[in-house]
Each structure stands twice: as structure tokens, then as C-alpha cells.
Amino acid sequence: MNNVFREITPLSPHDCFTVFTRDKMDFDFPVHCHEEYELNYILNGRGVRRIVGYHMAEIGDAELVMVGGSIPHAWFTHHFSGDSMHEVTVQFHHNLFDEQFLLRNQLSAIRNLLLCSRQGILFSQETTRKIAPRLEKLSSTNGFDSVLELMSILHELATSANMEILSKATPVEDKQDVKMQSMDKVITYIRQNYNKDIKLKDIAGLVNMPEVSFSRMIRKHTNRTFIEWLNDIRLSHASRLLINTTYTVAEISYMCGFNNLSYFNRVFRRKNGCTPRELRDNWQGSKVFI
Questions:
Q1: Collapsing DSSP states into helix, strand and coil, what is residue 184?
Q2: pLDDT band (50, 70, 90) for residue 283
């Protein structure tokens, strides 16, 4: 599958998971993948097109899907003609639950669920109706209780009936493509250092590639230039801070690696269609990190 955007989610190494809730009119994020597991619940989305791996379908009024293992996925507005749809997205680290931990008998169902999610899972309407209220409430739980609730939700999903594996043939990377290993190394570095001064030549040197070849690799895997891709990552962290903290716009700009406030405001407006302050003032959804 070509032109898959490799997303870096705003989860930090210290977070367990994030819950993102919002009402929206359309879907415009490109086909993408990430190493984190994701549960995506959509209500009133009849006519929206779902893509998971090589599977494509038009969804009904409500659906709950789980994806993991870097399988490409996306939702598109397509034939949606309603007034508004509601979305709850839960993302958690691929290594939140240690492999040895999951080998215990009582957790085998969750382990199988995580394995199957690498091909995408669509849950039944009965399961969706049962789990939806718990997903809605997940953002209001705190600390350790929230992690227990997530595990409980995963266990109920894992033992539910009539789940459907969406992509029987899963797109896989060419195992001989060493550039994919280089890309993973770059992603790890960016994730840990996005708030620092990062130069193209330094990152290219990190993976022992000429700058031209490195830029070509970034373009192939993200559909963006290196600077555009780096800015998108920084902007995702900036949006998180704007929504969930009281830091000033200037403070957030510097915390996310933008050393020029005017440039930060300009790039932010171009990407989001509003200023950082407008995003903070007008935010209608909720995003909680646990």
C-alpha cells in the first residue's frame, strides 16, 4: 500500500493511554499507521468510508473498530450526509502490557485480541452498544482505576461474540527494505527530541544516509518534506499542551521546538486553520492523557 502517512501520536513514554472525544462534520486525515493500538468508536456516521489494510467498507450508524501493529487505516467522509457525528478514540502504547504479562492464562484472551487487531477488528453491534458508554466515561476516570477499566474493556471485547477480522491480507513492509529500519530509528529519535533543535544533516547522519537520500525516504513514507513532517509532529504536541495546560502560547512554542513565535503562529494557522489562541478558546472536544 503506497502513500501511507506514518503518524507519531502525541502519547509520551510516561502516558498509559489517551482518550480523544469530539463531534465533527467530516474526516480528512489521510491513510496512516502507528505502532500504538487504537479503539475507534463512531456514532451517527452512516455513509462514512472505512479503510483498514486492504479492506474497505461504508459504515452504518455506529461502529467500534480496533487496529494495531501499524496496519494502515483511515475514515473518510465519503457519503456521510448527516449534521454531525460523534467520535471517541482510545490509543495506548504497543508495549503497555508486557508480553510475559500477557502469557498468563487469565490474560490469554486479551493477548489474542491484540494479535488479531493487527488485521483490524470490527465488533458486533451488540458489543458496540454495550461498550460505548464505558468508552465515553473512560476520560473521566483517574489514575490506576482508569488503567484497570481499560483492561476490563479489552477483556470484554476479547471475549465478545461475532467480531470480524477486517483485512485478511495485511499489507506488510518489505523485510529486505533496510530503509524501513532507518525510518523506525528516526521516529524513535524524533519522538524523544522533537522539542530540541533538529537539523536535517544531523538526522541523516544518525542513519548514515546522504541528505538527499534521507529526504527522499521521508517523502516516500510521509508524503511530506522533512521540515513539514517535523513541524506536524511538533504541532500535535503543541495542540495537546494548548488544550490541556495553561502555559502561554509563547511557552508552548518554545517547549515544542519552535524558536520563533511568529513562525510557530504562521505554521500553526496554515496547518489548523486557526491561531493557537483560537484553538484553545474554541476547543469543543476533550482529550485526556492518562
A1: helix
A2: low
